[in-house]
Design a protein that fits this description.
With 293 residues, this protein is α+β, with helices and mostly antiparallel strands. It is built from eight helices and twelve strands. The longest helix is centred in the middle third of the chain and has 20 residues.
Length: 293
């Protein structure tokens, strides 16, 4: 399929009836997002008929402010988008280790909509409102308040977009996979280099950026981050770098060892939440599934 390629660089309280209404809206929004990601075929078919081009912004490093864009005439197949994106990422990758090394960490790759983000934005807004109320409720507990403020800072500095549910792996399409949908609209293709860290956030004294080790489990990282729960934690939410959400059991009586990939986000759930804010432990990991960087 013909396409036009352009290269660009860009840097990147009181609990009232209002609170109850917000919580009910949060349940509604997170229920919709839990089915989480956009179906790729729906993404293509939902575009207006006058849509004649598909624009894909390629990000080739999570801490790199350079963006590269590819513009396709019509609706390209997923394989075309990924192939052209990978070509750009490889051309402009830095610090490639060895001649045959692939600078793309495919386990952390993701495709996001840059034009259909109402649900994600609504969830983000409701989450910040709820965290503000939680901070007010916990204002006399210095450690808990610091955990909330640290989480707010992390979320404020992150970018969230609606994740598109397709395989983002060049080998899948080179092998002739049957699922190769048409794509349309404005999209963001994240093709990162391999990260060297794991994030721990939530009920920890300070959001922590820890060095990745293949020998460590989620519980090990949580312990290193200094959690608020004095009685121990039995389960953690893990968002793998491809957006997949997992529950890791980490207590001595229920531990099931599960692997983490570099770049994973570990959410330590808050305990003792006010009943009006009990949905926070669902809202936060749901939003994290849609984190671009």
């Amino acid at each position: 399929m013909p396409f036009v390629m352009t290269l660009t660089h860009s840097a990147n309280a009181l609990f009232s009836s209002r609170l109850l209404q917000m919580v009910l809206l949060a349940f509604s929004t997170t229920a919709l997002l839990f089915s989480t990601v956009i179906n790729a075929s729906e993404l293509a078919s939902a575009q207006p008929k006058e849509q004649t081009q598909t624009r894909v912004t390629v990000i080739n490093a999570t801490k790199d402010n350079r963006h590269f864009s590819v513009t396709f005439d019509g609706s390209p197949r997923a394989s075309q988008v990924i192939s052209q994106g990978a070509l750009l990422a490889r051309q402009h990758a830095e610090n490639i280790q060895g001649h045959n090394s692939d600078p793309i960490f495919w386990q952390g790759a993701g495709l996001f909509s840059d034009s259909d983000n109402n649900d994600v934005e609504n969830l983000r807004t409701q989450l910040f409102e709820a965290l503000s109320l939680l901070g007010t409720e916990w204002r006399d507990d210095h450690a808990a308040l610091n955990a909330v403020e640290s989480l707010v800072t992390f979320l404020s500095e992150s970018t969230f977009k609606q994740r598109v549910a397709i395989a983002i792996d060049e080998d899948v399409y080179l092998a002739g996979g049957r699922i190769n949908p048409l794509l349309a609209g404005d999209l963001i293709l994240l093709l990162p280099s391999r990260p060297k860290d794991v994030w721990v956030l939530g009920a920890v004294k300070q959001t922590a950026d820890l060095d990745f080790s293949p020998l460590k489990l989620a519980g090990d990282y949580a312990d290193a981050a200094d959690t608020l729960d004095m009685f121990g934690i039995s389960e953690l939410d893990v968002i793998q770098p491809d957006g997949h959400r997992e529950t890791h059991r980490v207590a001595y009586w229920n531990e099931v060892p599960m692997n983490l990939a570099p770049g994973a986000l570990i959410y330590v759930p808050f305990s003792g939440l006010p009943s009006e804010l009990s949905s926070l432990n669902h809202m936060i990991p749901t939003l994290l599934q849609h984190r671009v960087m």
